[in-house]
């Protein structure tokens, strides 16, 4: 019996030593990483609204931080929370000692009236900053909607009566951005309860349905994108000449109806 116990202990020892060796190797790698991969240089890419110094000040990368143990989510969270134009942040570790902070900025598209002035919104309805009339002139002017309690860096809100208009505006702006039409749209009118009126190229008034369920995740989320893609085809120079002016009705069906002035 004693002989069998001794043989059993021997097998356990043969299993234990490799395990201890692996643990020691892992500990050595971690210790080496902490010592050898300390951040010595932080680069900033992709930002035009903020200086690299502003990004670094808000990012607050800890002194002597380690690339392997860097609190990436905390750094990205500070940037998106405190800098309104920062949309997305990605951190790239370039071993052995360099950290790159890549910024994707929000695209200001529309100027919308608030209780105390005009505010710039991106396609998601995020409020980027308050502007005066002269600065607002460079963006799509939105009428028929007033923001409620606007907060810089937060999503826009509207009263219960106008919330569906804000939802529809978000859908239209997203489609304008994805179809690269921002430079061709001067105004959007949300005065009517069931449709959106939009300028296009300074020559056409476009009629779109007001989709109150935009953002619900259904197929209607792509409807504005499809309709503005159709608008681009309708206004192709081979179809409508530079002298044409009028109204393009895109409220029904897949094809638009053009009514010249």
Report on this structure:
- This protein starts with a helix and ends with a strand.
- The longest helix has 35 residues.
- Strand 7, helix 5 and strand 8 form a beta-alpha-beta unit.
- The protein contains 6 helices and 12 strands.
- Helix 5 crosses helix 6.
- It is elongated, with a radius of gyration of 28 Å.
- With 261 residues, the protein is an alpha/beta fold.
- The strands form 2 sheets. It has a 9-stranded mixed sheet. The chain has a 3-stranded mixed sheet with strand order 1-3-2, covered by helices on one side.
- Helix content is 33%, strand content 26%.
Keywords:
elongated, 9-stranded mixed β-sheet, disordered N terminus, alpha/beta, 33% helix
Helix/strand layout:
Blueprint: H1 2-36, E1 41-45, H2 52-59, H3 72-82, E2 86-94, E3 98-105, E4 110-114, E5 117-121, E6 127-131, H4 133-136, E7 140-146, H5 163-178, E8 187-189, E9 195-200, E10 204-209, H6 223-234, E11 246-249, E12 257-260
Parallel strand pairs: 1-3, 4-7, 7-8, 10-11
Antiparallel strand pairs: 2-3, 4-5, 5-6, 8-9, 9-10, 11-12
Helix pairs in contact: 5-6
Tell me the Rg in angstroms.
Answer: 28 Å
- Characterize the main sheet: 9 strands, mixed
Number of helices: 6
Instruction: Work out the number of β strands.
Output: 12
Q: Percent of residues in beta strands?
A: 25-35%
pLDDT < 50 runs, ≥5 residues: 1-9
Binned, the helix content reads 25-40%
Strand order of the largest sheet: 6-5-4-7-8-9-10-11-12
